[in-house]
Design a protein that fits this description.
The chain is an alpha/beta fold. It is built from 17 helices and 14 strands. Strands 2-1-3-12 form a four-stranded mixed β-sheet. Strands 11-6-13 form a three-stranded antiparallel β-sheet. It is globular. It comes from Cohnella herbarum.
């Protein structure tokens, strides 16, 4: 029985290792934690006995923050954690930006998860797999106040009718950030349709300005144009593929992938984009070498802080409609380890992250797109981020839904199709065929 249990856990960890590639909001790779002891399944661990009520005990909670977004999140979480400490002086937080794909994988293998760590809800299948294998604390019995949240936000954190994390309160998507001074100098306005968008890129290229800075070396950041183009070109077709009513070989999907290759072929990403990392791409944009960059709304503060005359727009499709990738931000969605010695205190942190107080701190610091009406937008720039006609699909989530343990279609997009499109090794139609082959469609 012990051998069988070990085999099951090792199989689970291998699967999680394949899945944990990050999603949506720019989770970059960083230093992983050192390897630990042999894998083990979670087991109940009772807190030390105390004559004090659990809520009054002086305890220390270990919390892992998002290492890939430390530069953006460090200052607001200092304020969030200070506000929490003022409210609960008996609970000390050891908050470290220690979590990335590798460190979480090691913690799962060693059964050494921190008390709290961030999760991505239903954006991928990761949280559901951790729930299935007993790694997360069911929060349902704590009767969290979820009255401010919409059903879709509750669904984000719910597995089989049970709640497993703090709820999202901000919207993520990808937009074109652009240098207004460079656009005006070259007689370009924020585009109202696809043809105007492409013509503007052509004008910039002719003027010797890189139209769009792209981090060709970075697996996730080089994918943001595809994430932005997918709903603009093929929202209905991707929905149909996910439901089993269509295929990834639909001409609209192939056309979308081809447009990404065309941007590379025509030089819209510049000459050296394949060797460029995320920091270099951002610097090219902020120092005026590139007129624009396609990035997430989560990076808004970085570009605001650069001091440039900044503009933002969502990519319009051929009919002039702006359909954007929709995704909830996971900046404040944290789960409690099933093995935490202090689950009651850990839930207090979950409750605080669900509060307007914590959410407004994050908004004031970063300027995200709020989904809750009582969060006050930081400035007019945040309102500009929210100018679109429709919230569409997330292509990564669609392909995740079409994946199996044997064939990860989302991984094929990121590691195979996008790199080959950038280097003109395949056409859009060939890329679509590759995704179709990797996909497992639901049976009707």
């Amino acid at each position: 029985m012990k051998l069988k249990r070990l085999v099951i856990v090792i199989a689970f960890v291998a699967m999680i290792g394949a899945l944990l590639q990050g999603c949506g909001n720019g989770n970059k790779e960083g230093n992983s934690s050192p390897s630990a002891s042999a894998p083990a399944s979670p087991s109940a661990s009772a807190p030390a006995e105390s004559s004090e009520p659990p809520s009054e005990q002086n305890v220390t909670l270990k919390v892992w923050g998002d290492l890939g977004n430390q530069a953006v999140l460090e200052e607001p979480f200092k304020k969030i954690n200070a506000a929490f400490a003022a409210k609960y002086p008996n609970i000390k937080l050891e908050y470290d930006f220690a979590q990335n794909d590798q460190s979480l994988n090691v913690a799962l293998q060693a059964n050494e998860l921190p008390d709290l760590f961030w999760v991505q809800g239903d954006k991928t299948s990761k949280m559901a797999e951790m729930v299935k294998n007993g790694f997360l604390k069911d929060l349902t019995s704590y009767n969290l106040d979820l009255s401010r949240f919409a059903d879709s936000e509750k669904t984000y954190c719910t597995i089989d009718g049970k709640v497993y994390c703090s709820l999202p309160s901000f919207f993520d998507t990808n937009v074109v950030y652009y240098n207004k001074d460079l656009y005006e100098k070259n007689g370009i306005k924020s585009p109202t349709n696809w043809d105007e968008f492409v013509q503007g890129l052509e004008t910039l290229k002719a003027a010797g300005v890189t139209p769009i800075a792209l981090a060709g070396k970075s697996e996730w950041d080089r994918a943001w144009p595809v994430f932005a183009l997918a709903p603009a070109f093929a929202n209905a077709q991707l929905k149909a593929a996910q439901s089993g009513d269509g295929k990834m070989t639909d001409p609209a999907i192939a056309d979308m992938l081809q447009s990404f290759r065309d941007f590379a072929d025509k030089g819209y990403f510049g000459k050296d984009f394949l060797a460029q990392d995320y920091a270099a791409a951002q610097f090219a944009f902020t120092n005026g070498k590139a007129a624009g960059i396609i990035d997430g709304t989560w990076a808004n503060a970085t570009y605001v802080d650069s001091g440039m005359n900044l503009g933002r727009f969502s990519i319009p499709n051929k009919d002039g409609k702006k359909i954007v990738q929709s995704s909830y931000s996971n900046f404040m969605t944290y789960a409690v380890s099933a093995n935490s010695k202090y689950p009651d205190q850990a839930v207090k942190y979950i409750e605080f992250l669900n509060s307007l107080e914590a959410q407004q701190i994050l908004e004031d610091a970063i300027g995200l797109v709020p989904t809750l009406k009582d969060i006050v937008a930081k400035d007019e720039g945040v309102k500009e981020l929210a100018v679109f006609d429709e919230a569409g699909v997330n292509i990564y989530s669609v392909l995740t839904a079409l994946s199996t343990p044997e064939s990860n279609a989302a991984d094929v997009l990121m590691k195979d199709v996008i790199p080959k499109l950038m280097t003109s090794a395949i056409t859009g139609a060939e890329g679509a065929a590759t995704l179709d082959k990797a996909a497992k469609y639901p049976t009707k």
